[in-house]
Design brief:
Chain lengths: ~140, ~140
DNA sequence: TATTATTGCATAGCTTGCTATTCAAGTGTA
DNA sequence: TACACTTGAATAGCAAGCTATGCAATAATA
């Protein structure tokens, strides 16, 4: 029995993810943000003044991971936290001006990375690839 | 302008990779190994008694990452290192009996994870999916 | 109302990845 | 042969992910 890593979905998925992350990292480094902050920023650009719990519901990472990322974002001046009048355990998370201003450049970086990475696929192939990924994700999650 | 993460290849790729890793982690934990050791073991099962440099040429991680993984594997009794008569800077890396014995179970775990994860795709879709991933990987690497 | 259970976050400690740097051993050359 | 260059690994230090645990505030209940 043999195991060929190039025929292992998990191996390819992991490899691909590291390449994507590295690429995005290079693109957004000049903006002063890092890859792990990206999903958080995406949500906060849509709506800030929310609790950690709200954010958590929209981002698929563990609570502890999010808490640590938020700490680094506060340290880096990307977010601020204020008291939550409704619940003293939670705080409200707000973007700083600085972070708010990065939105369009960040969107653009991400889109550049995505389209560059997928340029080896034709348009219909890209759509199919995305569809496969969404199916695989929800398949694993619901198993 | 808006950015929908479900339409972002990078987002999906990252998410999918974390799900795969978590799944594999659960499957191989009983064997006493962890996901980062998997690629190293795969190579060493094919051929051990090699240098770190040899391994590095076959695994797509940075040298420092591999060095750290090897240290943990030595700590965990999965590998041993012996002097390299040909070059005093390098050492030869050998699997322990324990690690050698894990091979078939580990292959099986990985294959189970892969086929479970891809079960939402039909056979031709799976092949296409793998093909897309290989193309995307080599596209990014060569850009 | 006092106690218990739940909930929202924080913290500890680990792995896996990265970049950058250091260092000793080997190689090549003036 | 001495000096500089290169190369194989190790180390430092950080990010981002995880599990497990702790803790204070809130909610539910006896």
């Amino acid at each position: 029995m043999d195991f060929e890593k190039e025929n292992s979905a998990g191996y390819l998925v992991n490899h691909m993810a590291r390449l994507f992350a590295k690429e995005l990292q290079h693109h957004i480094a000049p903006l002063g943000i890092v890859v792990g902050q990206f999903p958080v920023l995406l949500e906060l650009w849509l709506k800030d003044g929310v609790t950690q719990k709200d954010l958590l519901a929209r981002i698929d990472v563990e609570q502890a991971t999010l808490a640590n990322t938020l700490n680094r974002m506060e340290r880096d001046g990307l977010i601020k936290r204020t008291k939550n009048p409704a619940d003293a355990r939670a705080q409200l998370i707000w973007l700083t001006e600085k972070a708010a201003a990065l939105r369009n450049s960040a969107y653009e970086s991400a889109q550049n990375v995505n389209s560059q990475a997928l340029q080896v696929l034709t348009e219909p192939e890209r759509a199919q690839f995305m569809d496969y990924m969404r199916r695989v994700i929800s398949g694993i999650r619901s198993s």
